[in-house]
Amino acid sequence: MAQATGIKEIIKPENLVYRKTKVMTDNILSYCPGCGHGTAHRILAEIIDEEGLQSETIGISPVGCSVLLYEFIDIDWQEAAHGRAPALATAIKRLLPDKFVFTYQGDGDLAAIGTAETIHTCNRGENILIIFINNGIYGMTGGQMAPTTLPGMKSSTSPYGRDVKLMGNPLKMTDIVATLPGTYYVTRQSVHTPVNVRKTKKAIRKAVHYQKLNKGTCFIEIVSNCPSGWKMTPVEANKWMEANMFPFYPLGDLKVPAEENAQKTTNSEKND
Amino acid sequence: MAKIRGSIVVEIDRCKGCEVCMVSCPTGTIAMAKEVNHKGYFYAYPAHPELCIGCANCAMVCPDGVITVYKTKI
Amino acid sequence: MEKELRLMKGNEAVAEAAIRTGADGYFGYPITPQSEILEYLMEADPYHTTGMVVLQAESEVAAINMVYGGAACGKKVMTTSSSPGISLKQEGITYIAGAELPCLIVNVVRGGPGLGTIQPAQSDYFQATKGGGHGDYHLIVLAPASVQEMADFVELGFDLAFKYRNPVMMLSDGAIGQMMEKVWLSPQKERSKTVPAWATTGKPATRDRIIITSLDLDPNGQERFNQKLVAKYNEIREKEVRYEEFQCEDAEYILVAYGTSARVCMKSIQLARAQGIKVGLLRPITLFPFPTKRLNELAGKVKMMVSVEMSAGQMVEDVMLSVNGKVPVYHFGRMGGIVTEPEEVVDFLKSKI
């Protein structure tokens, strides 16, 4: 009884430390249990909320599991054809340069059918943010091999494992776009642990800041899971991701702005 | 000495029982219920509420955003 | 402000008219015989005068999707291409139709199928008027027969596109795109400062979020949307039919032709009438909506109709549907990039009398 009273005392508005942002709608997410999409959506919505960008944002949703993204984040949306989101974003940002414009795309959308749009948008240095969810599989259509499927990894169209001699190699789009002069900030993160969620959120906030400064394309890959497609429980899937996806798609920054590097050097010198 | 006490509220019917919060909890506060919610999932709940420190790790990793976190000093 | 007289190619006229009508954006990719449009716009550099964005995209696919993005912001945006490029754009066009977005697409038609030829043809009639991409939809299709009309139909196209929230296609051909004629250009208009209520501009607290999409997973919702489109197309059929008649009053035979073929037929009529054959011309200006009603009326007064088109016979099907068996309907026209000769039309007509 004493304990129950204690909890009641804790659960008060003034003690609130975390609640789902109002920029997320109350619609039930259409994702499988444990899917990283929901977490990625939520931190994106949190940034939009915290940076006061709700009235300034135009998002472009992809074709794939997150096709209904516009049901979950309460901002203006355009739904693109499969792979074409960067082309939409290009026009939106050029016509409305003061708006915050981002695309949210899966690996099939961004790294297979939309390869040309992705690379050319990044190469032109369009002043937008591209969020790239890489779970190594086509989730929505039922777990087929994606451009990012790991060598040897099983999927419904590589049932004996991906044979790179027959099926080609996985494509590291993030590494490719990092080499392009148009990209300003390129990073690879994940959202499966509290630490990683915080890091990814920080990366999104940086990208928002850089877009305000008109710096060029920011590209954030989120290596994520697909418990249903991988045929694992969510907790197992996250462990498998750490053991198999991260060695192939290592987390961390691939391209950081020159001035930020300089800043870091100065700081470390001071510390020394 | 002031002690940090936290508490979580789970929106039971929105929880999909993925267990990611449970493994992210540093104090072992969260467990999965033995009964299911109306969608048929074994939902997460604070089985040991006295252990909660209000760190919000669970809420941070919850894909469905169903956890609200409170924290105070006692 | 007075109109300005210039000597221009049809393609150049499209570009200049786009700037003058206050277009917000142009997204294109080079392809013969319409590359002058992008070249003209790049040289004119309207971004520094009117603020119009001009961008050379990495493909026709990207260009039409840029049009989608711009149109969904409520902007006056356009793209141009020629037949093979228009085929590539079909995915984007059906999404634009499905999301009910206004835009202008110009097709300076060349011969096909496949890579075909770079010479003028009218073989994209089916693609333009029957949809082109997947799903039940129509474009509003305008068929210019002169450089003047290529200029005029830019503004008309945008007006119709915004009136009906529907993509508009200007179906020209390589002959009109490349030929030089005098053209009266309208004075420069300012770009619109108002934004339609349905456009994505960032969600203020005062309204619900705007979602531009062509997706509805609920079959009942999708069917309701299809019915809404049908109603819109029927309204367009009712209100927007445009055509021109030439010497139809006493005609015993009617030629039906659009674009370059209509110009050829003007000469054919002169030649035929000199031989005592009473021929008239009906030139559809809108191919969708098609002047069905008028053709049906005329069919009651004449002995025969010939659809003259530089194709294997595409518009002829719509002429037949319009006439509904009242009189015989034939097709005549050259293909492969060859423009039909006026004498050939007369000879064909005589062979059928």
Question: What general form of chain A does the structure show?
Answer: globular
Describe the strand arrangement of the main beta sheet of chain B, using strand numbers.
1-4
Q: Any low-confidence stretches of chain B, pLDDT <50, length ≥5?
A: none
Could you give the distance between the termini of chain A? 55 Å
The CATH homologous superfamily of chain A is named: Thiamin diphosphate (ThDP)-binding fold, Pyr/PP domains
Per CATH, which architecture of chain A?
A: 3-Layer(aba) Sandwich
Unreliable residue stretches of chain A: none
SSE run of chain A? HEHEEHEHHEEEHHEHEHHEH
Strand portion of chain A, in percent?
15-25%
Helix content of chain A: 40-55%
Q: What is the chain-wise order of helices and strands of chain B?
A: EHEEHE
Notes on the structure:
- The complex is a heterotrimer of chains A (272), B (74) and C (353).
- With 272 residues, chain A is an alpha/beta fold.
- Chain A has helices at residues 2-10, 36-50, 85-95, 107-113, 115-124, 164-167, 173-178, 194-212, 227-230, 234-248, 258-271, and strands at 16-18, 57-61, 76-79, 100-106, 129-134, 137-138, 144-145, 183-190, 217-223, 252-255.
- In chain A, the strands form two sheets. In chain A, strands 3-2-4-5-9-8-10 form a seven-stranded mixed beta sheet, with helices on both faces. A two-stranded antiparallel ribbon of chain A has the order 6-7.
- Chain B has one domain: Alpha-Beta Plaits, CATH 3.30.70.20.
- In chain B, the strands form two sheets. Chain B has a two-stranded antiparallel sheet with strand order 1-4. A two-stranded antiparallel sheet of chain B has the order 2-3.
- The N and C termini of chain B lie close together (9 Å).
- Chain B is built from two helices and four strands; from the N terminus they run βαββαβ.
- Chain B has 74 residues and is mainly β.
- The longest helix of chain B has 5 residues, at 20-24.
- Chain B is elongated.
- In chain C, the strands form three sheets. Chain C has a seven-stranded mixed beta sheet with strand order 3-2-4-5-7-6-13, with helices on both faces. Chain C has a five-stranded mixed beta sheet with strand order 10-12-11-14-15, with helices on both faces.
- Chain C folds into two domains: 4-187 and 230-237, Thiamin diphosphate (ThDP)-binding fold, Pyr/PP domains (Rossmann fold); 244-352, Rossmann fold (3-Layer(aba) Sandwich), CATH 3.40.50.
- Chain C has 353 residues and is α/β, with parallel strands linked by helices.
- Chain C starts with a strand and ends with a helix.
- In chain C, helix 1 (10-20) crosses helix 2, helix 3 runs parallel beside helix 4 and helix 9 (259-274) packs across helix 12.
- Classes of the chains: A alpha/beta (272), B mainly beta (74), C alpha/beta (353).
- Chain A binds chain B through residues 3, 6-7, 9-12, 15-20, 24, 28-29, 31-39, 42, 191-194, 197-198, 227, 233-235, 238, and chain B through 5-7, 9, 14, 16-20, 23-24, 41, 49-50, 54-57, 59-72, 74.
